[in-house]
Amino acid sequence: MTAALEQLGGKAAALLLDFDGPVCSIFAGYPAPIVARVLVQVLIAQRAEFAGDLDDEQDPLEVLRLTGALADASLTEMIEDALVAAELRAVGSAEPTSYAREVIVAARQVGLPLAVVSNNSSQAVEAYLRAHRLDRHVRLVVGRAYAAPTRMKPNPAPILQAARALGVEPDLCVLLGDSLSDIEGAKAAGTRVIGFANRPAKKQAFEQAGADWVVTSMREVAQALVGLDVASGDHVS
């Protein structure tokens, strides 16, 4: 853990967490490729001309993005509604990320306002937080703007929205995310960013994209916040 990351708790005025990755794997039990296929079937049923171009698409968010770019508002809303329903179903079998709970609770314990800023729907994020008794530790949830996929990260809009709602300047926030869209969105918002490299290939990509810190475990962030000896089992609850 770098000296810079060790100083995180003292320098940040707010912590912004991406959801899918840093908090949980939302599609662990209801895989993303299956969800993507469900959305494509909706497009096929509606006779969308571009549906055939998505036969191999495995990311439901990309199905939504393309629909927003190529279809009218009505069809985009239809795909949005289907995706929200799928995300709510997926929450029931989502797999918590190791040490995510420690990070979330530790942030509250040290008085660091925490928001979840996600390209997933706010309904799904809030349902997960309630189910895992984390909602009382999270000040704010900023989810995907309804049927407006261009406002998803890497668009900085949701990050700036969270900073405003928390009453914190963007440059005093730290975003923790596990994708290049998180890194790019944070940079565009003027927010510092921790890249969570939950796969080895991500580490170099995040460094090249300009992440301020790169971690391979949420444990590192928990330790940075309060110096928890999580290796010995001193977990917050």
What is this entry, summarized?
The protein has 237 residues and is an alpha/beta fold. The chain is 47% helix and 12% strand. The longest helix is centred in the middle third of the chain and has 19 residues, at 73-91.
Share of helical residues: 40-55%
> How many beta-strand runs?
8
Strand content of the residues, in percent?
5-15%
Task: Please compute the radius of gyration using only Cα atoms.
Answer: 18 Å
Regarding CATH, which class of the largest domain?
Alpha Beta
Distance between the termini: 23 Å
Strand order of the largest sheet: 5-4-1-6-7-8
Order of helix and strand elements from N to C terminus: HHEEHHHEHEHEHEHEHEH
Rounded mean pLDDT is 92
Shape: globular
What does this structure look like?
The protein is globular and about 55 Å long. The protein is an alpha/beta fold. Strand 4, helix 7 and strand 5 (140-142) form a beta-alpha-beta unit. The protein has 2 domains: 3-25 and 95-232, HAD superfamily/HAD-like (Rossmann fold), CATH 3.40.50.1000; 32-91. It has 11 helices and 8 strands. Helix 3 packs parallel to helix 4 and helix 3 runs antiparallel to helix 5. The longest helix is centred in the middle third of the chain and has 19 residues, at 73-91. The strands form 2 sheets. Strands 5-4-1-6-7-8 form a 6-stranded parallel β-sheet, with helices on both faces. Strands 2-3 form a two-stranded antiparallel ribbon.
